[in-house]
């Protein structure tokens, strides 16, 4: 199944879910043995990974942006237009930073950990 591409259906079906834990961003040369990041991207400076704070602390990794991880449970098509702009604009208007990562099935939002509950409220307002 390729996912939903109708913006109205995407917004109505977002069903944001707050994943448990605090997540941080780190840059590494190689992914440490036994670590399964929730997101990775290869950049010129190294591999950016998103992992839970406890793991980053235990490994003594330099990390930043303590984040809450919110999953939009709607199955969004990778070529859908407007969903990212919709939630990013709403969060920006509320003064909440958001780093969005698209998976093959869902969009994942990383917002400041201390703003996680307010971010969920903003997303609920978008849904209506």
Would you mind describing this structure in some detail?
By secondary structure, this protein is α+β, with helices and mostly antiparallel strands. It has a single domain, classed as VC0802-like (2-Layer Sandwich), CATH 3.30.2130. The chain has four helices and seven strands. Strand 3 (39-43) and strand 4 form a beta hairpin. Helix 3 crosses helix 4 (116-127).
Short structural description:
This protein is α+β, with helices and mostly antiparallel strands and 128 residues long.
Helix/strand-derived class?
A: alpha+beta
CATH topology, which one? VC0802-like
Q: How far apart lie the N and C ends?
A: 27 Å
Mean pLDDT across residues: 97
Topology of helices and strands:
Layout: H1 7-12, E1 16-18, E2 23-28, E3 39-43, E4 46-52, H2 53-58, E5 63-72, H3 83-93, E6 99-102, E7 107-112, H4 116-127
Antiparallel strand pairs: 1-5, 2-4, 2-5, 3-4, 5-7, 6-7
Helix pairs in contact: 3-4
Write a concise keyword list for the protein shown above.
128 residues, alpha+beta, VC0802-like, seven-stranded antiparallel β-sheet, 27% helix, globular, ACT-like_dom_sf, ACT domain-containing protein
């Amino acid at each position: 199944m390729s996912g939903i591409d109708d913006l109205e259906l995407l917004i109505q079906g977002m069903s944001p879910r707050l994943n448990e834990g605090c997540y941080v961003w780190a840059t590494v040369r190689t992914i440490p043995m036994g670590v399964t990041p929730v997101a990775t991207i290869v950049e010129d400076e190294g591999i950016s990974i998103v992992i839970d704070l406890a793991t980053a602390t235990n490994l003594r990794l330099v990390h930043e942006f303590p984040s809450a991880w919110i999953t939009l449970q709607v199955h969004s098509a990778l070529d859908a237009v407007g969903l990212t702009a919709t939630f990013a604009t709403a969060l920006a208007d509320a003064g909440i930073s958001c780093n969005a990562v698209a998976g093959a099935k869902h969009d994942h939002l990383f917002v400041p950990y201390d703003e996680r509950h307010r971010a969920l409220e903003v997303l609920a307002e978008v849904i209506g």
